[in-house]
Amino acid sequence: MAAPTSPHAHGLFSRRAVAAAFVAVPMLRLGAGAQPQPKRMATPSQTEGPFYPVKLPADADNDLLRNGALSYRSGQPASVEGSVTDLDGRPLRGAEVEIWQCDQGGHYHHPGDGDRADAAFQGFGRVAVDAQGRWRFRTIRPVAYSGRTPHIHVKVKLGRRELLTTQLYVAGDPGNARDFLWRNLPEPAREAVTVPFERTSDGWLARFPIVVAA
After folding, report:
1. Least buried of 36, 52, 150, 204, by fewest C-beta within 10 Å?
2. DSSP secondary-structure letter at 108?
């Protein structure tokens, strides 16, 4: 049979229990507060290259397969889509995404590349992100040209600020390892700008999430 507990002992036990509870609560709060969500890695920047348009084309929407009244029939049609978020994962509202790339023959609409680009290929596009930071373009699966692996140039702007210029690469392309820009990136940076192009019912689809330090 258990010994009876004295009123003094019972009171002492109660005060200790209450004190322990007050100590435990801030410790629990500290433990929860000590595990913030990790920051995302910003998408690495890459050189703009010599072929950003000297003058933006009259048709600069998100469909690069139509240039005015002309329709581009060469290459492999592809959709490239993604989102623009900050380091905390919040959509970057008001941002614009631009892309530019060569046509199937490896030529840009740029004086530095002569006058060899196919007029039917728009070559450059711009789109504003939606409320969730999402964007989408219709273009061709990028192709290689002399000295470069397949890639698409990407720029993110917010008002007059240029937040990021980078390049999007095709996962698994054998030319990547020979490309000086791709090869010189650290492994985590390569993974951030290299995405798979997956077959769909209307061509290819690539998803490219963009993270910027806004």
Report:
1. 36
2. -
Contact 139, 78 (CB under 8 A): yes
Q: Is residue 115 situated within a structural domain?
A: yes
What strands, in cross-sheet order, belong to the sheet with 151-158? 124-128, 95-100, 151-158, 161-170, 194-195
Write out 139-176 in H/E/C secondary structure: EECCCCECCECCEEEEEEEECCEEEEEEEEEECCCCCH
Rounded Cα–Cα distance for residues 104 and 142 (Å):
8
Give the pLDDT confidence of 28-84 residue by residue, as tens digits: 343 455 455 567 899 999 999 889 999 999 999 999 999 999 999 999 999 999 999
Position 203 pLDDT exceeds 50: yes
110 vs 196: CA distance, rounded Å: 28
Residue 57: inside a domain, yes or no?
no
For the chain, where are the alpha helices, taking DSSP H only? 7-33, 180-183, 187-193
Give the burial string for 30-67 (b: 16+ CB within 10 Å, else e). Answer: eeeeeeeeeebebbbebeebebeeeeebebbebbbbeb
CA 107/CA 123 separation, integer angstroms: 9
C-alpha dihedral (19, 24, 30, 36), degrees to nearest 10:
-160
Residue 13 CA from chain centroid, whole number: 58
114 lies in some domain: yes
| Number of domains the chain contains | 2
